[in-house]
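In practice, a research group might receive sequence data for several interacting partners and want a quick structural hypothesis before committing to experiments. The following worked case mirrors that situation: the sequences arrive first, and a predicted assembly follows.
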Amino acid sequence: MVLSDLRQGQSAVIEKIGGNGALRRRILEMGIVRGTEVYVEKYAPLKDPLELIVKGYHVSLRVEEAAKITVTPVKPA
Amino acid sequence: MTAKRLTIALAGNPNSGKTTIFNNITGTRQKVGNWPGVTVEKKEGLIHYRGYDLRVVDLPGTYSLTPYSIEEIVARNFILDQSPDVVIDIIDASNLERSLYLATQLCELDCKVLFALNMADLASSRGSKIDGSKLSELLEVPVTFTVGNKNEGIDILLEMAVELAESEMPDRSKRRVRYSKDIETAIEKLQQDFARHPEARVPYNERWTAIKLLEDDKIVKQRIVEKTGGEARRILDLTASLREHLRDRFDEEPEIVTTDERYGFIAGIVREVQTNTTRQRIDISRNIDLVLTNRFVGFPIFVFFIWAMFQLTFTLGEYPMEAIDALIGWFSSSLGSLLPDSLFKSLLLDGMVAGVGSVIIFLPNILILFFCIALFEDTGYMSRSAFLMDKIMHLIGLHGKSFIPMLMGFGCNVPAIMASRTLESEKDRILTILITPFMSCSAKLPVYIALAGTFFGGRAGSVIFAVYLTGIVLSMITGRIFRSTLLRGADAPFVMELPPYRVPMFKSLLIHMWDRSKIFLRKMGGIILIGSVVIWCLSSFPQNVPLTRDYDAEAAQVKTAYETKLQAAEPAGRLLIEKERDEALQVLDRDRRAEQTEGSLMGWIGKAMAPLFAPLGIDWRGGVALVSGFVAKEIVVSTLGVLHAVDGDERSEALRTALKASGMTPLAALSMMVFVLLYLPCLATVTAIRRETGSLKWMFFSIFYSTSVAWLMAFVVYQAGRLLGFA
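A structural hypothesis for the assembly, expressed as tokens:
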């Protein structure tokens, strides 16, 4: 399952960041690394980009970028 | 004895409050410029502190020190090459984990680092406490607390910075990031190689250099080639084989592995120093976003904010503009009455004062606009607007943040192009700058009103709307084309932080606004002055144009004729006769000016270019008017007026009659409007393009591109129209 498959309000743990070069490194540097839990805060009104909460801060990603991130959804407690 | 000089660099993530701290330290004693060769803003300030001269440099806000963005390269090169005495890392305490990524990278460099945990009050209100002394112990870096927006802790920060600068370089070898065994082995192998070949003289800290080589850092590789000469081949070969080995071992690029491991190291530190007391917290920022980026009301609110900014900029700006206009008029006329008529006077008044005046007049717009933009940026709304607009802007190959500059283009291209500074990626910035001139600015409106009003009567409104729409469509096409050709690839990743909303500090808004406006005033002044003088020369030389009529004699005749009439007339009728006389003199003056302009270099250029304009259905007068429009687009109408020897005002009946009488057809008028919409931007805009792209190349490209598109589009409109049977 990829990050962009998640719906608003769902959480997931990062498995693998795909893509290449600068973008991939940038995503990692922002703290979206393997094993990190992310929460999908919302999608923009036009469904792209989406807003995540990672390590206590808010970050936005384009859907096409999020589609390259493999995740495992966390079951709501 | 002169005071000892220390250089202190401020590093930190964007939105960490770094700029606020910089403002607190330096106050208004700031120098704003650009970093050499790039258009990244450079700010520095010089202060005296306890017998020291402190040069404080605000590095660009970055999340990391990998050389991917210009900001990161600039920040890193400053630390590497200028060796500041101390680097203060401003750490957003409520965002500790991510902030430590940059912090650990700074620690790996050979520099004295000091951590300022900023906004810890906010963090603790969110239920997280940070043990500063523990952090200091773990990383062997002095740590202090600051609250930037309350100006707390700044004095201690400076005191610690000076103390650190005067102390010995700490040995941090035991406190640095430890990578996994395979990576450490590779680092060691490179370090051993450096040690075996001391003649190679690796330019930076050896461990750091080894890590960067393993991460395939382009800039470090290049430096190695430059600095180590013949040794470079061997070092790079060794690096390549080590990278190959690591790639096999991890099934992953080594730089990805090191990033991962750094975050692992950081996670360990965060566990030790940060305690979260309450998990559930009231997050005001999230609540605000429930409204401002809401699926239904997010856009309407955004449109309202933009509308309000537009209104403020161009409606509120109107009042000071009128005042400035009046002031310039007063200055010009009082100077005019002081000086005797001469060529010099004309140069001074019609050239310099009029030219510079035409630019100064935008100052109120610029001040207000930059105030609004600073407000958007400092509150955190700017990134929300990018969040909302990105989908649409991405369709034309742009970033969400490009929207605001483009929109401002409808008002005036000069502030619009300057507003493109808010874009982080240089390619996005250049693309935005290239397409912004297609947004029809308000100065072009009088031209449309004159032409459409004359030739399209009741349908003028729809025609003008269509012209605006043409500009928008062409900007989208241009965006797509350039993104896939000239400025390919670097479509900046949209990994953008949405920082918490903050109440902006008025002082910092003013500093922001003034810094940018100052650049506008200073740099525009010079070029605009020269440009105005050139245009003035073109339209006033040669001086002795052979005239077909003796205007002075005719004027004298008119005067004497009316003199006799006046004497014969009743006192009550005199006013009317005087008015008639003045009108007759004005007609003469206009005829003379028309002939003079026709005979001037400008007229000559217009006529020489007539064959170029002919396929567009534009006669030489139109050509001259278009050329003169380079100074400012409004001038197109007044030049048309001069050349047709009528009052030059877009609503003037006389101009309408004259335009119709000149044989211009509605189709030709449409073609001319399209040309005006698209052709080369005005002098002030061109100057702004030069300044904001930092290159003459892009400036000339923009001029060439827009003018070619203008010609082509006008040609298509005119010729296709004729084929379809419109005259």
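Before designing any experiment, note the following. The two ends of chain A are 20 Å apart (CA to CA). The first helix of chain A runs from residue 21 to 29.
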